[in-house]
Protein: Poly(A) polymerase I
Organism: Giesbergeria anulus
Amino acid sequence: MIKKFIDKLIAKANPGARRAAPRFGQRVDVPPEVHGIDPALVDERAADVVRVLKDAGFEAYIVGGAVRDLLLGLKPKDFDIATDATPEEVRGLFHRAFIIGKRFRIVHVVYGHGKESDVIEVSTFRAFLDNSAAEQVSGNEKTSRRALAGMQHAVDASGRVLRDNVWGPQDEDATRRDFTLNAMYYDPETQILVDYHHGIDDAKKKLLRMIGDPATRYREDPVRIIRAVRFAAKLSDLGFALELKTAAPLVQSQQLLADVPQSRMFDEVLKLLQTGHALATIEQLHKLGLAHGIYPLLDVVVERADTDFVHAALTDTDRRVREGKPVAPSFLLACVLWEDVRNNWNRRLQAGELSLPALYEAIDDTLNLRIGDISGRGKLAGDMREIWIMQPRFERRTGRVPDSMVTQLRFRAGFDFLWLRAEVGEVDEALAEWWQEYSTADEQRRYDLLEQAREEQKALQRAKQPVVRRIPKTNATTTAETAATGPAPAGDAASDTAPAKKRRRRKRKPGSTDGAPAGPIEP
């Protein structure tokens, strides 16, 4: 007790003093025959970054989630590198390398160009610091931007870390990471796995465990709450679960997320939904008591996950990720928020507004309500808007509309949206099948399909028109005579309801004989 009291006094007297690394950070080198990582699963570019750094005299390892996935026999999506080289030293070793970030300064090493480019993220070993001794600011990243300038280690009033750029040795870097499964280091050259916090043992136990006190770690970075849900969802199929001590403070710590910038929260929510485990994420949120309150947009997803349309969209997103196909956040969010757009649009139509302006207004209202003013909204909202506006246009299959539709950049996204609507019975499946065939047909077949659509349209219009039966006209005189004398005998000309057709006499031309004497006819 006395020693702890003295340590606290020393920390207050020296705010920049660094706390000693916890005793459980003992390094263990695990050989390949024990960890069983398949070297073939390692990305060549990540291995190249490690090789360049080591050749320059630095330590370098693959780290984090990539090591976790390699250990579990999974193919990592991203590879991160940790090194004792500073960001400036890393940047100087590669032709295309860029220092990014303020809260955590890291380096992006870029390979390739355009859509084929690949980014390897390189971070410097960070020191394990006592956040109670960090410099403190009263606001957040935006409101305290000037105060944070030049600070290396800073927190806000709640203890959330705003700056963490103090370099240190590898064992301290491991201690400041979140989960034991994410705190292992792998050298692709020697194939040695470095473990400081019993990550290997937790992998065998299928346990997701936070390093240190979970409540304190969530307070340092509340986004770890979302990461805990994401890891639990991703590894649930393999039988992994959050340690009870790690899960216990989640609900109570949830309120800390209110101080996280909206743009960062939005990005983290998209990760939850686009990593191929969206349905498992919804299940974990319910299981952990976090189904409501993390983020307003996520609340909407959870509420609508059981509806046919949103459930189909989440299922389709998970399938595409598993198949290695690209997924766009605009498409999934367009599916989630379609109910808002459709209901708002229908209300405006019932109020007498014109269809297209009503749709635009409904879209604007939905985006303002559900997405808000976040960084990057412009591109996202533009893509969602195009998907929604295409839907009524799919009903028009005449003239030049089909040709203009299939040449649009976002046609495939709009069509996939239509197809999902057809699957849940919102539109006729034949409509989606028509567009599927038209988009891939040659010119002659497209002409035939347009003719088919015209005939269907005509048939539909005829079916909508009321049937008018014609009543035969009767001669007024005949009707009066019939009323006075009674019906004529059968076979009598007077019995015909229609009057006799009056025969017209043709005028003869002067001088024409035509079988009759010329001149006036004698009486």
User: Anything to note?
Assistant: Residues 64 and 182 are 4 Å apart (CA to CA).
